[in-house]
Amino acid sequence: MNKLSLSAFVGDKIQLVASPTDGTYQYKWTSEDTNIATVDGSGLVNILSEGNTNIIVSSGDVSRIIPLTAVTRIPLTDVVLSETSLELLPGARKAILVTNVPDNANDVPPYYWYSENPDIATVNEIGELTVVNEGVTNIVYRIGDIEKKVVVDVAYTRPFKGPHILSATEPYFLLAANFDFGGEGYAFHDIDANSHTGDNYRKNNGDPNGLAVEIEGNGNNIGYTNPGEWLQYTVEVQDAGIYLVEVSLSANGNDGKYRIEVDDVNATGTVVVPNNGSWSNWRFHPTPPLEINFTQGRHKVKFYFEGAGFNYRALRFTKK
């Protein structure tokens, strides 16, 4: 027999073939329950209703039984993924679960998974994804004509109190204390792990990993700065072009210096901060403002302390 058993949907027609087929034997075909399925003289089975029966083929004293199970076809109409978007760290793993609609669908076509950018995230044949590098890509699940996507956003750091959107509409004032989520070595570097201020601004806003940074005045500014420390901010540039960048600060020392990096590239060179004899007489510096050219999209802006002696309050971005 070309088939030893049959599982079919109501309405299907299935051709059974008995061998040899060279005409040596004449075959007789019968169904034990013709309400469930019929079979003609050539072995063509017609499924009529749900149930179980046997198709019997015989020749002389030899016979073969082919068990048949028939069910009503329930086609797959949709699928629901357990995730539609994910924010993950490089190296993370995540399983995406699939729910069929309807959940008792029995007419389910073959499926496959793939990543639109395997350099950012990969996915195996059962929907387990592995994050590789920073970036954004889609993980795609396709089954028949149905396609679903999961947006996978991979980054070591995330905006704190963001998004921080730079546009031509109006200047954007970004508080120094609103550096990224991500912790030491990713969102900031602070030489002294113990805070000298005890300010809970970050903790009270959902970031227990930023306590080492010396925030003052419940987010008003950052003090006790040291050379080599830095803070990182994730910004979304809506309108590409040159932005005037000013730093709100106050210096009570003569060693103040900083630079601003964009995506780990020095964008300003060393900027010297004049002593204005106060830790809290805020002014925007420098004059004229710095100019940084931003392309459209996401960027990592790093404020790097090259010298101490000043308190740092905010960045202001104005489209030129």
Unreliable sequence segments = none
User: Helicity, in percent?
Assistant: under 10%
Oligomeric nature of the chains = single chain
- Number of helix segments? 1
What is the rounded distance between the termini? 80 Å
| Strand segment count | 29
Determine the mean pLDDT.
96
Class based on secondary structure composition and strand pairing: mainly beta
Q: What value does the Rg take, in angstroms?
A: 34 Å
Largest sheet: 7 strands, mixed
Order of helices and strands: EEEEEEEEEEEEEEEEEEEHEEEEEEEEEE
What is the percentage of strand-forming residues?
over 45%
Shape: rod-shaped
What does the model show?
The chain has 320 residues and is mainly β. It has one helix at residues 201-204, and strands at 6-9, 13-15, 28-31, 37-39, 44-47, 51-59, 62-71, 78-81, 85-88, 93-95, 98-101, 111-115, 121-123, 128-131, 135-143, 146-154, 165-166, 172-175, 188-189, 215-216, 221-222, 230-237, 241-251, 257-262, 265-266, 271-272, 283-294, 297-307, 310-319. The strands form eight sheets. Strands 17, 19, 22, 24, 25, 26 and 28 form a seven-stranded mixed β-sheet that branches. A four-stranded mixed β-sheet has the order 1-7-6-3, with no helix packed on it. A hairpin with a 4-residue loop joins β4 and β5. The radius of gyration is 34 Å and the shape is rod-shaped. The model has no long low-confidence stretch (mean pLDDT 96).
